[in-house]
Every structure is written in structure tokens, then in C-alpha cells.
Design goal:
By secondary structure, the protein is mostly helical. The protein has one domain. It contains four helices and no strands. Helix 1 crosses helix 2 and helix 3 packs across helix 4. The longest helix is centred in the middle third of the chain and has 16 residues.
């Protein structure tokens, strides 16, 4: 199967899409424990060093949609 069908890749593509509906759908597709891990990762992406500015902007957008910022 081509990489563009990888469910993990599709999840992150949606979560970092900057599209509220896609972000919420991706978030709702994972369980609470995974949500906590993803939330920590998004927070790290938004404020941590070493991330590309576009990645940081996308993480910030996801956090805003999820009400976590």
C-alpha cells in the first residue's frame, strides 16, 4: 500500500491541517489515553525548539481548535 494511505500519516495530516473540522475528526478518532499523548506532543511542537515554523503554526492551530491553548 502506498504511504499516503498510512493511517498514522493521515491522522497527523488531518490534525495539522489547520482545518477545524479535520482537526476535530482526527481528535475524535483516538482514545483518551492517546489524546493525552498527542496533546503533549502538540504542545511540544508549538513551543519546543527544532520544529519548522509551519509545523509550529499547525500545532498551535490544532491546540486552539481543541481548546487547549
Amino acid at each position: 500500500m502506498p504511504d499516503f494511505f498510512d493511517p498514522v500519516e493521515l491522522f497527523w495530516e488531518s490534525l495539522l491541517s489547520r482545518e477545524p473540522d479535520q482537526i476535530q475528526a482526527a481528535w475524535n478518532s483516538i482514545d483518551r489515553a492517546t489524546q493525552e499523548q498527542v496533546l503533549r506532543h502538540l504542545q511540544d511542537m508549538a513551543i519546543g525548539e527544532g520544529w519548522h515554523p509551519e509545523q509550529q503554526t499547525s500545532a498551535e492551530a490544532a491546540l486552539q481548535v481543541l481548546g487547549s491553548k
